[in-house]
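[scheduler] slot 2 assigned
[scheduler] job type: sequence-to-structure, two independent chains
[scheduler] chain ordering preserved from manifest
[runner] begin chain α
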Amino acid sequence: MRILILGTGGLGGYFGARLAASGADVTFVARGEHLKAMRANGLRIESALGNLLLKPVTASDDPTSAGVVDLVMIGVKLWDTESAVEALAPAVGPDTAVVSFQNGVDAIDVLTKKFGRQRVLGGIAHIAAVIEAPGVIRHNGQLQRLTFGELDGKSSARVEQLLAQCRKAGIDAVVSDGIQRAIWEKFVFIVGLSALTTLTRLPIGPIREEPLTRELLANVMREAAAVGRAKGVDLAADIVEKQLAFVDTLPADMIASMLGDLRRGNRLELPWLSGGVVRLGTTLGVVTPANRFVYTALKLHENGRHPAVSAKNDA
């Protein structure tokens, strides 16, 4: 299976390396020092599930370098989605499947507009992984799950092929017959996790233990779910309770990638998470005060470290 990994961050780097080590023909798209280190030293995965050094590694800053592939897995930051989709177009042939494992709920619309619904799969990823150093991915905890499926919920040969490849690689993979609902379920979770860990600059452990921050977490999730229902997504009545129960199973030191970006002074995915809930709520007539509060509180950091913050200090 010829796979193009568009975005070799924590998500793309981890899953791409596991797939490549299992025999898949994987090309990674990366840039800067990360790409340079991968070419020189390989791609290293540090994980409680087993370390891995993928060397040599096929990596480029040009998405067209692999030619036409069987599958494109997209893991770039949300602000890069449209430009990345334009750049990868030559790699997408008549039989290529394209799947986004990004956060947010906008990717399917972007992909279907560009490539047509017949080429697009839906997908979500559950993993805590970051670029620890150029060429090195640190996987925190043991959760590493990919969920994917056809947009119409039907089975297909390409989905079964990807499932088999993931299982061969030791990846916890699930095929969903309701992937668009699953994407929104993940969105409810990730909006809450991103909002509260970034807002408080703390991991999830103390947030879920303090009644006031736990209630704010629940309210952020409730608003995301309400927006989803207003868009016609069939979300369970108890989705927030289920997501809070899932939060209670997470490692106490888990943070959202958005907090990592804030700490490093990087651009945030805020406009597509809490900001996305506010935007969609405004369009659909759903009030979203909790997410508006989060969006407002973090707005000045949206495009990276604010000039008023010392680079020596935590943002």
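[runner] end chain α
[runner] begin chain β
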Amino acid sequence: MYALAIHGGAGALPRVPFTAARENAYRQGLMQALDAGERVLERGGCALDAVEAAVASLEDDPLFNAAHGAVLTADGTVELDAAIMDGSDLRAGAVALIRHVRNPVRLARRLLEDAAHVFLVGAGAERFAAQAGFSLVANDYFITPERQQQFEALRQRRLHSPAAAASAAIALEEPPFGTVGAVARDQAGALAAATSTGGTAGKHAGRIGDSPVIGAGTYADNQSCAVSTTGHGEWFLRTVQAYDIAARLRYGGCSLRAAVSEAIERRLVALGAAGGLIAVDQHGEIAMERNTPAMFRASVRAGEPASVHLI
């Protein structure tokens, strides 16, 4: 029995409600990504391939804050982070500060497969990409007119009120935070997780959040669960949130839902942190929780209809 869940970001609802066309576009983007991952699982493919396919689909969709369509840094450029992890043997690949690789999750997968290292950043990661045969693109490829407009609005707000910069970055981002991710259980019972992001709008150049950090934003272990997070990255880093949930299952005997609920509804709320996560356990149970008004998410299990939710 296979199971797959994806997310496209968690946070506050936009100040201007989505039009019906806009909402439909987000739903279609989530369904396309879900379909991409499910096709792998339906034919008996591995969970690692499924999460890579699903996240790559979201990276290609300009509506989401990952790769093409990512938010801009304070310098007006795009810096991308991604990670992927195989729960069967705990292999992982992670990249950060990527500026020229079309699909960072695919680079993270290649790192998982081919390199002696887990985590590469910046120019070193992109040299590895070139050596591995990846075609590099101009940084402008990732910048959409909407994100450029958002950057200009944020820049103007900073000029008038520098102290409001951090809150402005969150308020202007749409969908809020916008990180994308996927978790899966394949028919053989293996688990995998992947996460990709452009980070927060107007972030300081060089900032790395939780998404590419194994154990914080991405984690998978066949003995417990697979997790991908989205939201206030600094808090997910500080709480090592993805691993914390896996540890609650493996060592504390918690159910998946109990572990996720404790993390999202109690621990993060007590810290003043906002966000959400998706997880799947070794039995194929899925949990998708957030402490924010909205989280773009979708899921499917073998023999069951797919579900898509924005709030």
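[runner] end chain β
[qc] chain β: Confidence is low (pLDDT under 50) at residues 165-176.
[scheduler] slot 2 released
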